[in-house]
Amino acid sequence: MNGRRLAILGYHQVGGPPIGGPGASYYVPQRVLNTQLGQLREAGWQFVDADTLIAALAGEGTLPSLAALVTFDDGYRTLLDHALPVLSEYECPAVVFVPTDHIGGHDTFDYGSSHRPGEELCDWDDLRRLEQAGIAVQSHSASHRAFSDLGPDELRAELAGSKKKLERELEREVRLLAYPYGDAGLDADLTADLLEETGYSAACLYGGGPFDPWQADPFRLARIAVGPGTDIRAKLS
């Protein structure tokens, strides 16, 4: 691995939020996504895919000196209409982290029924379409529950169950996870042990900035939390 700086960007929704709906800070308009990816490229960052990152972290490959991985949490269907055209324009690979219990459903894990029915999530056909377009589907656990609320056996079941279901449906290995809510659990070392035990190679937090991949804990990778007002240039500096 010869990369010296890695920036992992963490997005959720691409598009506009429902009028009067909660969570507007998670919605990045398509034009803003376009601008942010353009700023990355102008600053000399090169987009990499999940396999390249995983291989580099294992010492089996290299990274550009300024490497950027674009990720999306939860697997919203808006990725197909709003994110995919921009990613395709920039020839930018990406990752989408999905909670497998909710595939084809709605994001009720965040809002329940008290505010709205929730935004629609990709089904399996949608996810396969994203994969064909260069967006790798990886794990966001099974239920999307916060890891700090889970005991060791529950956590092991979340990790193993999500991985097994994704691999069965996508017919390939899944090695990357993003912690729901950026929560690595009450004992992050135990969580890392369980991740390794169940076959994962790396896991992403939510928050932070660019880092030296040579020095990183592969099970606690920082991600830049990106919203509609995020100053990408400032974050990268």
Summary of the model, kept short:
By secondary structure, this protein is of the alpha/beta class. It has eight helices and ten strands.
Question: Would you write up a description of this structure?
Answer:
This protein is an alpha/beta fold. The chain has a single domain (5-236), classed as Glycoside hydrolase/deacetylase (TIM Barrel, Alpha-Beta Barrel), CATH 3.20.20.370. Helices cover 34% and strands 16% of the residues. It has eight helices and ten strands. The chain has helices at residues 30-42, 50-57, 78-89, 108-111, 124-132, 152-170, 188-197, 232-236, and strands at residues 5-11, 13-14, 27-28, 46-47, 66-73, 94-98, 135-139, 176-178, 202-204, 224-225. The strands form three sheets. Strands 1, 4, 5, 6, 7 and 10 form a six-stranded parallel sheet that branches. The protein has a two-stranded parallel sheet with strand order 2-3. Strands 8-9 form a two-stranded parallel ribbon. Helix 3 (78-89) links the parallel strand 5 (66-73) and strand 6 (94-98). The radius of gyration is 17 Å and the shape is globular. The two termini are 22 Å apart. The mean pLDDT is 93.
Radius of gyration, in Å, reads 17 Å
Structural class: alpha/beta
Overall morphology: globular
CATH third-level topology = TIM Barrel
The CATH class, by name, is Alpha Beta
The overall pLDDT, averaged over residues, is 93
Helix content: 25-40%
CATH architecture: Alpha-Beta Barrel
Order of helices and strands: EEEHEHEHEHHEHEHEEH
SS summary, helix count: 8
